[in-house]
From TrEMBL:
Residues 1-166 form the SMP-LTD domain. Its main location: membrane. GO terms for biological process: endoplasmic reticulum-plasma membrane tethering; lipid transport. PANTHER family: EXTENDED SYNAPTOTAGMIN-2, EXTENDED SYNAPTOTAGMIN-LIKE PROTEIN 2, ISOFORM C. This is ESYT2 protein. GO terms for molecular function: calcium ion binding; calcium-dependent phospholipid binding; phosphatidylcholine binding; phosphatidylethanolamine binding; phosphatidylinositol binding. InterPro entries: C2_dom, C2_domain_sf, Ext_Synaptotagmin_C2A, Extended_Synaptotagmin, SMP_LBD, Synaptotagmin_SMP.
Amino acid sequence: MWPFICQFIEKLFRETIEPAVRGANNHLSTFSFTKIDIGHQPLRINGVKVYTENVDKRQIILDLQISFVGNCEIDLEIKRYFCRAGVKSIQIHGTMRVILEPLIGDMPLIGALSLFFLRKPLLEINWTGLTNLLDVPGLNGLSDTIILDIISNYLVLPNRITVPLVSEVQIAQLRFPIPKGVLRIHFIEAQDLEGKDTYLKGIVKGKSDPYGIIRVGNQIFQSKVIKENLNPKWNEVYEALVYEHPGQELEIELFDEDPDKDDFLGSLMIDLIEVEKERLLDEVIKFSKFWFNKAHITLMPTADNLDKVLTSIRADKDQANDGLSSALLILYLDSARNLPVSYVLMDALLS
C-alpha cells in the first residue's frame, strides 16, 4: 500500500497544507511545494490496540503505534522572496487513532475513515535551507522547534483527517464531532521539588523557579512561575475540551525556569478514563522525586449538575486565567448561498 499512501500524502500536502500555509501569513502568499517524494521506506506499525468497551456499536476504534524513519525529498519555495528550502529526512513516532465509522450494511461496510494523533507525536525533521526560510519577514521570530510544533499540532486531536468512503455519510459530523465533555483542572501545588539552580559553578545548591505545562491533546496551558520555591502553590484553574476517550490523557510537566534552557523537574500522565469513572479525582500522587497535589480534576459531559457547576465556578473563577464556563456553545458554519457579487472582483475585471 505504501506507494498509494504516498500519493495520498502528496495530495494532502498540495490541496490542504499548502493553502493553509499561504493563508497563515501575508508573507507566505506565494508559498508552494515544488517536489514531494516521501521515499521508499514504508511506515511501520509496531502494535495495535482495539477498544471493545464503551464504544458505539457502529464504530471500530484502533490505536496504532506507528514509527516512520524515511529519507524523503520535499522541496518548497516562496517566490516572493526567492527563498527555497527543503526536507531530506523525517522521523515520526507516536500513537495514531483510526476510527472506522459509521459501519454500514453494504459494501465497503465502512462509511468513513478518520485519522489523528491523540497527543503530539515525536517529530524530527532534517531541513535543508532552513536559515533561508527563517530569514523571510514575518518568520524571523520562528524557530525549528516552533515549526515542528505547528506541524505536529496540525495532526493532533481535535484536528483530524477524515476520508469518506461512501457518498451518503455525513462528513461534517465526523470531521467536527461534539466534545465528550469539559475537563476542569485545578493546578494547586507541588512539594519537595529538586533544586536545580546552582551558584559558584555548582558548589552551592540553590532552589528552583517552577512552573507547569498542562496538555490535553493540542490544548496547552502554562502556569505562572513561582520564584525560588521548592514547595510552590499555583492555585490555578484550567478548562479543556475532551473529544476522545478511552485513550486521551492529561499530561503534566514541571520545569525550572532559567535564562538559557529550562530544566525538567518531572512529569505525570493521567488516563481520562479514570476521571470519567470517578467524576472527581482529589488525591496526592508521587512522581519522580517529589510530591504533586492533583486535586479536583473533573469531567462534566452533561448539564444535569449545572447548578452545582455554577456554584463551583463562583468559588473558583478568581483562580482561572480567562474565567470559567458553565456551558459549551458549538457553532458549525456549513455553507452560504446567494452572496452578493464582490465589488472588488468587479473592479478587477473592469480594469
